[in-house]
């Protein structure tokens, strides 16, 4: 199986920055897509940024050029650099890895944007 763990969340002021990390471990093979999602209590989990094999990164409209998705394949790690954070970005951010048969989720990392 694949294990996924996010880190890097925290409390920042509006306009601040955070870099989220997602480390995947285990028997990783046949990855079809990877992405960052976020969720607010009572709302559906929504895509922030994601990429499929051989494709360019897809960003949600609300990103508005502020976030950058990247990866370090040697470390089995993906990142989400978030700049110009807004209070509306407050949510639990999750990393998702989709393989041929299963999707894997981390426990999430809390991002709070507030003065």
What does this structure look like?
By secondary structure, the chain is mainly beta. It contains no helices and 11 strands. About 25% of the residues are buried.
Task: Describe this protein with a few key phrases.
single chain, 115 residues, mainly beta, seven-stranded mixed beta sheet, four-stranded antiparallel beta sheet, 11 strands
Helical segment tally?
A: 0
Structural class: mainly beta
The total of beta strands comes to 11
Shape: globular
* Amount of beta strand: over 45%
Topology as H/E string? EEEEEEEEEEE
Unreliable spans are none
Mean pLDDT: 93
Radius of gyration: 14 Å
Biggest sheet overview = 7 strands, mixed
Helix content: under 10%
- Terminal CA distance reads 40 Å
């Amino acid at each position: 199986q694949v294990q996924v763990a996010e880190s890097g969340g925290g409390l920042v002021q509006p306009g601040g920055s955070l870099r989220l990390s997602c480390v995947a471990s285990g028997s990783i093979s046949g990855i079809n897509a990877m992405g960052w999602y976020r969720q607010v209590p009572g709302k559906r989990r929504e895509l922030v940024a994601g990429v499929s094999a051989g494709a360019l990164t897809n960003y949600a409209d609300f990103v508005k050029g502020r976030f950058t998705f990247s990866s370090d394949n040697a470390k089995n790690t993906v990142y989400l650099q978030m700049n110009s954070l807004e209070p509306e970005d407050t949510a639990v951010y999750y990393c998702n890895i989709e393989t041929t048969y299963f999707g894997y989720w981390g426990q999430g990392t809390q991002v709070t944007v507030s003065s």
